[in-house]
Design brief:
alpha+beta
Length: 379
């Protein structure tokens, strides 16, 4: 289980874009640094190989000059030509002998391109020809035998041409060997640094990235705050400041969400109260319509009248007013009925008065006074 977890962590580490950039940048930087250091190393190695060629040839030339101190230029050329047959000097391809004034005396084999040099630094030179690399070396008989041939009277220049193709192959093997070592060292250092960076940087960053995604899901789903793994890191560096800023940011977001929830609850409560208020206003409006229609029931405003605000006061006043209006209407109806009766009696009295005061009624009344009752019944 632990091995599988380690492999999973390593796989995630190497698949991370940041890890890949760090690995690539570190590896390329190490290789570039080693390549820069390799250039002078190759040049130094090339100088060492050429010095080996020069050292062997210098020993043989010194031996010839010491053995034949009175040899002429032609004799020196003949003795030098014998060096081509020496198994240790198979690299000598040719040479030339010049007199002290720089005039060519004789050449043998492949003639060298180097002539009599003007400075000691120009006494050896590497050439690249169509046939391959060539290394020419020049000596003076007095210089090479200095301190050993005090009776040497004639000075000559001796120039030998050497086959330097072997140095190219040796340099290639040297560069491959050094390059492989450089790659091995760069890979080892890169892996070692990745192990260190994974503990100090990559793993905390990946953990923080996971916590950021988890925080986003938590905020989106409006769920409880989870345990963030990145908060376990107690660091006094920039990454620690980022983790602390993340913790502070998440706390601020949670506080804002809490305030928002509280504001939403308050708004819902106010909305509910507003709906109830509007419903009760509608009841008061319906009560006004019912009063106008004569169908008002005071009990319909009892729940509204229980309020302690202006609407409750209005409902109570409306109930009182409606009751007062009802009583006044009842009184008016009663008075109207009484007035109607009085009007009917007065009208009847007026009609009776009109009848009794008429001439016809007076004549009948006068006749009745003179009329005897017995006469009336007898007749």
């Amino acid at each position: 289980m632990r091995l599988a977890k380690s492999l999973q962590t390593t796989n995630r580490l190497f698949r991370s874009p940041l890890s890949q950039r760090i690995i690539a940048g570190m590896f390329v930087s190490l290789v570039a640094i080693e390549a820069i250091l390799l250039v002078p190393s190759v040049q130094r190695r090339q100088g060492e190989l050429l010095d080996q060629i020069a050292e062997v040839s210098t020993g043989k030339v010194r031996w010839i000059v010491t053995t034949y101190p009175a040899a002429t230029g032609a004799d020196l050329a003949q003795h030098l030509q014998q060096l081509q047959k020496d198994p240790m000097l198979q690299g000598i391809l040719g040479g030339a002998v010049y007199d002290g004034e720089g005039n060519l005396v004789e050449t043998f084999g492949e003639p060298p391109e180097l002539t009599t040099p003007s400075t000691p630094q120009d006494r050896s030179q590497l050439f690249t020809t169509a046939a391959g690399r060539r290394y020419d070396i020049a000596w003076t008989t007095t210089g090479i035998g200095e301190g050993m041939l005090p009776n040497l009277t004639e000075n000559h220049w001796i120039v030998l041409r050497h086959d330097a193709d072997g140095t190219r192959q040796a340099l290639m093997f040297y560069m491959l060997r050094i390059g492989g070592l450089v790659l091995l060292i760069a890979a080892f250092i890169t892996l070692a640094m990745m192990v260190l960076l994974s503990r100090l940087l990559i793993t905390p960053i990946l953990t923080l990235r996971h916590d950021l995604a988890l925080a986003g899901e938590t905020v989106a789903c409006d769920s409880n705050a989870p345990e963030f793994a990145s908060l376990r890191y107690r660091r006094q560096d920039e990454l620690g400041e980022v983790i602390a800023a993340f913790k502070q940011m998440y706390g601020q977001i949670c506080a804002e969400i809490g305030d928002r929830k509280q504001a939403e609850a308050t708004l819902r409560h106010q909305n509910h109260e507003m709906q109830q208020y509007i419903e009760q206003v509608d009841k008061v409006t319906a009560a006004a319509t019912a009063v106008d229609a004569g169908t008002f029931d005071p009990a319909a405003l009892d729940d509204v009248a229980q309020r302690d605000d202006e609407l409750g006061q209005l409902a109570r006043m409306f109930q009182l007013m409606a009751a007062s209006v009802e009583r006044r209407e009842t009184q008016l109806k009663q008075q109207l009925m009484e007035l109607t009766i009085e009007i009917d009696q007065a009208k009847l009295q007026k009609q009776v008065a009109q009848i009794t005061e008429s001439d016809y009624f007076q004549e009948i009344k006068s006749e009745l006074k003179h009329l005897q009752v017995d006469e009336f019944w007898q007749s």
